[in-house]
User: Which sequence fits this backbone?
């Protein structure tokens, strides 16, 4: 019988295992199971033991097949920006490091490998060694999303509109820092790369800018991930299910990704029709709708709707977006058991 890790990787790479694997992208939620404060993990210094314990404690309760290898924040600390860390909340960057473009010229993408990332790497190592049967997914911000964190999103949008040289420079730096973090964190400790990409979003930046700035950086990251044997799961936000978006959906699939996770506003069936088997698909119940507020019956029936719709597809069940502290874990358990009891 296949392990959860084998099933997950089979599906990411385009296979159709008998059981649908589940990956609810758990970024800080595990801390609610261990009761650790967010500051307790992020310090500084970052506590890899508390991180790994929380990741594994949530998996013990929920039973999902793939986990993120650490409690995750945001990759700005290596560039001199601190995180705001609410006691029982989600860490957020207090500023963007490269509001002055001259400071980017003087910086190295490898500075992303700071003490926090060292702690995260240690957490990945612990999770990997304690549970070799689980898939370990490396969660990093996608190209424009990371670029926006580094430059400040409004400034990056202005660069894209009026100063393309600067925008390209920021995007190159963004891709290089993603690659540096990927090589450091996951080359030997993760099974796949997940690019969390809320602002790699054509609804926000427009189709032209998406094609001009997101796609080349995405290609660069995919090509490096490919070189070290890591499949890439890409999760842009925005509508990709409309006919008018076929061109950028095609460019996204052709960039070298292995799996596409659609965000909540998309009709999954339309997306899969347009992808037409060219990569695997991830998605599932809306984290801010049904999965958060639904009744038991609503959660089960929504989960089953996805399972039936994607029955003959390379498909991974997920929540529509990442999961953080405060989310009702019982609801996640309902989704996971409904997926695991479904047979193709
Ligand atoms: Zn999302």
Assistant:
């Amino acid at each position: 019988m296949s392990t959860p890790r084998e099933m997950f990787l089979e599906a990411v790479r385009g296979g159709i295992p008998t059981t649908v694997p589940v990956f609810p992208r758990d970024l800080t939620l595990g801390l609610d199971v261990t009761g650790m404060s967010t500051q307790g993990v992020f310090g500084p210094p970052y506590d890899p033991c508390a991180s790994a314990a929380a990741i594994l404690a949530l998996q013990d309760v929920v039973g999902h097949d793939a986990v993120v290898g650490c409690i995750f924040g945001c990759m700005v600390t290596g560039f001199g920006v601190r995180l705001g860390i609410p006691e029982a909340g989600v860490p957020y960057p207090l500023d963007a490091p490269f509001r002055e473009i001259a400071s980017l010229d003087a910086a190295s993408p490898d500075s992303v490998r700071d003490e926090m990332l060292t702690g995260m790497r240690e957490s990945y190592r612990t999770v990997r060694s304690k549970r070799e049967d689980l898939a370990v997914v490396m969660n990093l911000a996608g190209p424009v999303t990371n670029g926006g964190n580094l430059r400040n999103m409004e400034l990056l949008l202005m660069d894209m509109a009026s100063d393309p040289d600067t925008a390209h420079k920021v995007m190159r730096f963004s891709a290089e820092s993603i690659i540096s973090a990927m090589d450091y964190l996951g080359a030997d400790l993760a099974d796949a790369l997940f690019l969390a990409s809320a602002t790699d979003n054509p609804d926000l930046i427009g189709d032209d800018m998406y094609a001009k700035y997101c796609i080349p950086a995405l290609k660069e990251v995919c090509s490096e991930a490919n070189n070290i044997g890591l499949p890439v799961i890409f999760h842009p936000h925005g509508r990709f299910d409309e006919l008018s978006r076929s061109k950028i959906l095609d460019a996204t699939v052709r960039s070298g990704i292995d799996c596409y996770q659609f965000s909540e506003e998309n009709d999954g069936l339309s997306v899969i029709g347009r992808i037409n088997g060219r990569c695997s698909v991830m998605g599932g119940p809306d984290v801010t709708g049904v999965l958060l507020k639904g009744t038991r019956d609503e959660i089960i029936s929504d989960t089953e709707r996805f399972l039936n719709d994607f029955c003959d597809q390379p498909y991974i069940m997920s929540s529509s977006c990442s999961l953080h502290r405060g989310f009702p874990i019982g609801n996640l358990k309902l989704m996971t058991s409904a997926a695991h009891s479904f047979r193709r």
Q: What stands out?
A: The pocket of zinc ion is lined by residues 198, 235, 237, 263, 321 (CB under 6 Å). The chain has 16 helices and nine strands.
